[in-house]
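User: Second chain of the day. Same drill as before.
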Amino acid sequence: MHRSLSEIESFDKKVTQLFKEAHHSRSGLFNIEETGKKIGLDSREIETISYHLKRSNMLETANGSLVRISKYGHLMYSGQINHGYAPI
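Assistant: Same format as last time:
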């Protein structure tokens, strides 16, 4: 399925907001559902973002419903890596 540029930019903006909010956690652990709702995402958006971030190894499951941004995710978010990959 092809996505429009505006859909891709919107997704990127939402992921950036999610990562900014997640950085407020001292332990690095956060509940993606709660964090997503806090920044105004609906359940469908949270599920979609979570799926894609986990699939691209930017998020890793930590404990139950808690996740953390992976080392790869931190490198992407900080701009140290400027292109991503997606597992096939």
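The chain has one domain: 5-78.

User: Great, on to the next one.
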